[in-house]
Write a structure and sequence with these properties.
The structure holds two protein chains of two kinds. Chain A is an alpha/beta fold. Chain A has five helices and five strands, in the order E-H-E-H-E-H-E-H-E-H. Chain A has a five-stranded parallel beta sheet with strand order 2-1-3-4-5, with helices on both faces. The longest helix of chain A is centred in the first third of the chain and has 13 residues. Chain A is globular. By secondary structure, chain B is α+β, with helices and mostly antiparallel strands. Chain B folds into four domains: 112 residues, PAS domain (Beta-Lactamase, 2-Layer Sandwich), CATH 3.30.450.20; 89 residues, Helix Hairpins; 152 residues, Histidine kinase-like ATPase, C-terminal domain (Heat Shock Protein 90); 159 residues, BMC (bacterial microcompartment) domain (Alpha-Beta Plaits, 2-Layer Sandwich). Helices cover 44% and strands 24% of the residues of chain B. Chain B is built from 17 helices and 19 strands. Chain B has a five-stranded antiparallel beta sheet, with helices on both faces. In chain B, strands 7-9-10-12-11 form a five-stranded mixed beta sheet. Chain B has a five-stranded antiparallel beta sheet with strand order 16-17-15-18-19, with helices on both faces. The longest helix of chain B has 54 residues. Chain B starts with a helix and ends with a strand. Classes of the chains: A alpha/beta, B alpha+beta. At the A-B interface, helix 1, helix 4 and helix 5 of A face helix 5 and helix 6 of B.
């Protein structure tokens, strides 16, 4: 898992910084995207092992991004974990149906998030 | 009273009075008739009262009225009549036969009271009420959206504070000294409290707009109580409070939403811990409700400070806060017990409190026990009659690799349950039981009342739920379907619906437990779905 790369997609700079510090402290590499439009091209360039995706994004709602990730044959295999301030009651099921592997409401529990990342990252052989 | 007085009374009456002969020719009208209808006395005399007909009723209506009064009975009702000028008025009308000295019908007397204004006012009132409801609904929705927006906006900065505090506390920005740790810890605890407050606000908004999601299913109460108690071990120990639990043996399963039940228990236990002194005792006790054996009663009691009698009535109210001298002054928004009551009542139970100041408090709540006939009712009763046939589907989920822990996940099971309940022929099928036996292995039963096509729909629904959740299952789903295997017997049909349903329920219960019965199916008739 060490060295695996996580793409953090969030329009809030502070949250990106916070998650970055947390993930780097746990041995991950990180990459960032701050709007929906950029996410696909950054993902194609960075080839992350997992994507942490906010839902309320400028330039394309998180669900749109999720659909586009799933539709792209180069990106469809990457596990996506949604981290959103939105109510899970109304959004979690929709996100999982759209292909996300997990849904966390902000503020996220770091231990649970790290456990989920570990569970879904495919070990390089 | 002499005739003169009587005539004078009729003349001055506020109601329009018409007297006809037995051929319905008008013989007399009073001044009020003239004011109401616009027909002068001399215009009305000799006419048939049908000059007042508005055309709002068919001939049957009038012939029924005529038959009634001709047979010697009184007719009364509300009718729309037409004035001389063509305008329509509404009146309450009573027509009674008048008898002569020999008891024969000599004519009829009709009394009309104008109710146009009353009806008009009623219509305005109804319209106003509708507008009010509509505006209340809009306000509620607006509040809902506002709260959801506020919750969203609060969570984002809170998430940043939460993350950076925890980074500091985990020494990820360098080592911190013990005082710094203590202060950061206080800040962190307060952030967690804010998180709870925001969650409570959202929950209240849901409760008020009727959007609380509750999915009851049969649950083992012993396990639910144990889970709740264990999760408060640390908090109780920190205050040296002893946390005890006792669940009556052989208790039937409780019909409740697992997550909501945990929420109820957690709210009550947390509340007790808050108001109980160090070295106190909190007990969680569950058993059959002595007042109603179709319910299960759970009591959370403490040896805490108790509640003032005045406050007991308001304790479940929204925004009520218990202010107890010497106790934590900041106790939140006062939403916890309000939410708890909503959660209990919406699951068909009730909640109440008993308390003695200085001695302690007991919160009691009840929830319905698992009642098989009641659950089967929608699937097996059709238009008040027991269906002649029904089917059982059993779904076994097992991991592809028996040593793997990854197979069925609780999330997936919840999804299946929810989807089956809400989308698969929900009017005629019920998911009967859904339980996880050994980690990744799951068994689920559905009773299908909708015919064999219902079975197929149920099966395809389960498959689609599993397929769309790729992380949840890496294994095999096996369907065992028994259709028409056990029709309801004619003699049972004769017993009456409730008794027959109870018999069928007992038989179904036995079949669910009968491994051999299912084993027979294993050798044919089952449908395997591998992923």
């Amino acid at each position: 898992m060490a060295g695996a790369k996580i793409l953090i997609v969030d329009d809030d700079r502070d949250l990106r910084l916070g998650l970055n510090a947390r993930l780097r402290a746990n041995g991950f590499e990180t990459a960032f995207a701050e709007d929906g439009m950029m996410t696909i091209s950054i993902a194609l360039r960075e080839k992350p092992d997992a994507i942490l995706l906010d839902l309320g994004l400028p330039g394309g709602d998180g669900f749109v991004v999720l659909d586009r990730l799933r539709a792209n044959s180069n990106l469809a295999h990457i596990p996506v974990i949604v981290i959103s301030a939105r109510d899970p009651e109304a959004n979690e099921k929709r996100a999982l149906t759209a292909g996300a592997v997990g849904y966390f409401q902000k503020p996220v529990d770091n231990e649970q998030l790290l456990a989920m990342i570990a569970e879904h990252i495919v070990q390089p052989t | 009273m002499n005739r003169l007085h009587l005539a004078s009374a009729v003349e001055s009456a506020g109601e329009a009075i018409v007297v006809t002969d037995c051929e319905a020719r008008i013989r007399y009208v009073n001044p009020a008739f003239q004011s109401l209808t616009g027909y002068r006395v001399e215009e009305a005399i000799g006419q048939n009262p049908r000059i007042l007909q508005s055309g709002a009723y068919d001939t049957d209506f009038y012939s029924d009225m005529w038959q009634t009064i001709k047979s010697g009975s009184k007719w009364s009702g509300e009718v729309k009549n037409r004035r001389k000028d063509g305008s329509v008025y509404e009146c309450s009308l009573t027509i009674a036969p008048v008898f002569d000295g020999d008891g024969l019908i000599d004519g009829f007397v009709a009394v009309q009271r104008d109710i146009t204004e009353i009806r008009q006012a009623e219509r305005v009132l109804i319209e106003k009420q509708r507008e009010l409801n509509e505006s209340q609904r809009e306000q509620l929705e607006m509040k809902d959206r506002f709260l959801s927006q506020v919750s969203h906006e609060l969570r984002t900065p809170l998430a940043a504070v939460h993350q950076f505090l925890s980074l500091l506390l985990d020494d990820l920005a360098g080592p911190i000294n013990s005082q710094q740790r203590e202060f950061l810890g206080i800040a962190y605890r307060n952030v967690k409290q804010l998180e709870h407050l925001i969650a409570d606000l959202t929950e209240v908004a849901r409760a008020q707009s009727g959007k609380l999601r509750i999915e009851p299913r049969p649950l083992d109460l012993e396990r639910a109580v144990a889970d709740a108690v264990v999760s408060f071990d640390g908090k109780a120990r920190a205050k040296e409070i002893r946390l005890r639990r006792k669940v009556e043996s052989n208790l039937p399963e409780v019909m409740a939403d697992a997550a909501r039940l945990q929420q109820i228990l957690s709210n009550l236990i947390e509340n007790s811990i808050k108001f109980t002194d160090e070295e106190g005792v909190i007990r969680v006790v569950a058993g059959l409700d002595p007042d109603d054996d179709s319910k299960i009663r759970v009591t959370v009691s403490d040896t805490g400070c108790g509640i003032e009698p005045d406050a007991m009535e308001r304790i479940f109210d929204r925004l009520h806060q218990e202010n107890v001298e010497g106790w934590e002054s900041r106790t939140g928004l006062g939403l916890g017990l309000y939410i708890t009551r909503e959660l209990v009542t919406r699951q068909g139970g009730r909640i109440w409190v008993e308390s003695k100041q200085g001695e302690g408090t007991s919160f009691h709540f009840t929830l319905p026990s698992f009642d098989l006939p009641r659950i089967l009712r929608p699937a097996l009763i059709d238009r008040g009659e027991l269906r002649p046939s029904w089917g059982i589907v059993r779904v076994d989920v097992s991991p592809m690799d028996p040593h793997s822990s990854r197979g069925a996940s609780p999330d997936m099971s919840r999804d299946i349950y929810h989807d089956m309940c809400t989308t698969v022929h929900s009017d005629v099928d019920v998911v009967l039981r859904h339980r996880f036996c050994h980690g990744a292995y799951a068994t689920l039963y559905a009773i299908i009342g909708s015919g064999p096509e219902g079975t197929a729909a149920a099966a395809s629904r389960i498959c689609s739920v599993m397929r769309r959740d790729p992380g949840a299952l890496n294994g095999t789903i096996k369907f065992l379907v028994r259709w028409n295997a056990d029709v309801t017997r004619p003699e049972e049909q004769k017993l009456g619906v409730d008794a027959a349903l109870a018999i069928v329920a007992t038989r179904i219960e036995a079949l669910l437990e009968d491994e051999e019965w299912w084993e027979e199916l294993n050798h044919g008739g089952s449908q395997d779905t591998h992923r």
